[in-house]
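During the second year of the project, the team shifted from modelling isolated chains to modelling whole assemblies. The rationale, set out in the original proposal, was that interfaces cannot be judged from single-chain predictions alone. As a representative example for this report, we include one of the complexes processed in the last quarter. Its constituent sequences, exactly as entered into the pipeline, are reproduced here:
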Amino acid sequence: MSEFLGYERDDGSVGIRNHVAIISTAPYANDTVERAAEIVENTVPITHPLGRCQTKPDVFQTYRTLLGYGTHPNVYGTVVVAHAGEIVDGDELASDVAETGRPSDSVNIHGEKGVMNALQRTVNSAREMVQEASDQRRVPADMSNLTFGINCATSDTTSGLCQHKATARAAWRLIDDYDGRACFAETPEFFGGEHELAERAVDEETKQEILDRVEHWDQRLQATGYDVRGAQPTPDNMDGGLTTIEEKSLGALVKSGDGPIQDIVDYGAQIPDDSGMYIMDTPGHGAESVTGIGAGGAHFMVISTGQGHTLSNAIMPTIKITGNPGSAERVPEQTDVDVSEALVGDQSFDWASDQLWDEIEDVVNGKLTMSEAMGESQFAIHRIGPST
Amino acid sequence: MADRYLEVVEPDDNVATALRELEAGETVAVAVGDEERTVEVSEDVVFGHKIAIEDIADGETITKYGKSIGNATEDIPAGTWVHVHNVESNYGRGDLADGEQTAAVSE
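Output from the structure prediction step:
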């Protein structure tokens, strides 16, 4: 398969879904967003506790993350809902969405003279967009359009020995055979493997950037005054046999394979267009790293998990793969692909990768993932500094 | 023949991952690179956890994937369960950082 059926956008991207996003810019618009999404079918509410009383580094990060969702390839149109005058500006966000050719509207609760008026306008705009979106057809598009997100979740010792190998092979298949791109993240989960990872960078600048960002994370964690164990690895990681963050990291890095790293980008920043493997600098916190990679424009994500996880995203479908024998039975709705036969049975890792690739082909063409069918999603923007 | 359910990732690793439950007292044959090593398991080990495949001294590096995953906090004889009770990390150790570094965020 060198083509898939997707939704063409005016900005040249091609989506694998056709969502209408309703995005809140501050906590005080969250209720209106959620209520509108309850009323209008097939809308995705995006709410969060940020966007107000933040310092500039967080303002920029929150803004580019929300913009990443408003302009995501899988998004047809966006309604932005703001509370009043906010440092994350709703009108600016809606205007930046409109520049990509997507339908967009900006609703301000104060400007509309109250919540009921704002809700009505949000519902009207979202309803129009949903009807238009439903009238758009999938068309053949080249696989090179696709960006493959990679994340791990509830890792255990099987992760680095099995499912991450299948994930890496599938990601490099998209890059090497179809000129697509892939992106992994979770910088603190490079601890212990950062030097070998940095050697994979395509240039000296990227190599140094990887090492600097890993060092920065270690400094941030040391500054807490506590041992990070418990936060990394997590209690469920430790139950699964992972002893230290270094052991977790060395396993986690297996999911990126061993090919060249093109660049490391900021949290929530756009993943570049050129084919290849990229890193996004995010924490290991799954909801935050997945939210960041989604903002970067990944069309879908493979979540390579040990014991299973509900980790998911409403805009970017997540395909869960496990190699832990028993996880698929223990948590069936958290497993799209079970490749444990490659670990404890007689199957190869190429077989495991083929199982995953077949599922990816189905999902990019419209098959719902377990998380989509279950209606599961989380949204958590990583924050840098204090509220003020 | 080596037990396929005990995985040593790189030949210089000093731990093996158990891909089945191990029982105290059993003798296992572990493939280490092209060689085979016999280890007496000294305690029960659950799926996915690790055992030492050689004697590891207090303070010595625990090696998996051919790299350090931390240091032993006590002597760990071959066949012993290796986990959080006898290994410490070398990253994110705010508990070992100096006061000046932690002053800004400590309680």
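Chain A touches chain B at residues 156-158, 160-161, 188, 191-193, 196, 218-219, 221-229, 231-232, 238, 240-241, 243-247, 250-251, 306, 324, 343-344 (CB under 8 Å). Chain A has a mean pLDDT of 97.
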